[in-house]
Amino acid sequence: MLNQLYKVYSTLKKEYCVEDWWPVYDGREPFTEISVGAILTQNTNWNNVEKALKHLISKDLITLESIKNADKKIIEELVKPAGFYKRKSETIKEFADRVYGRKNIDRELLLSIKGIGKETADSILLYALNKPVFVIDAYAKRLFSRLGYISEDISYDNLQSFFHKNLEKDVTLFQEYHAGIVEHCKSICKKKPLCENCPLKDFCKYKKQEISPTSQIHKQQEGF
Question: What is the pLDDT of residue 218?
Answer without folding.
Answer: 37
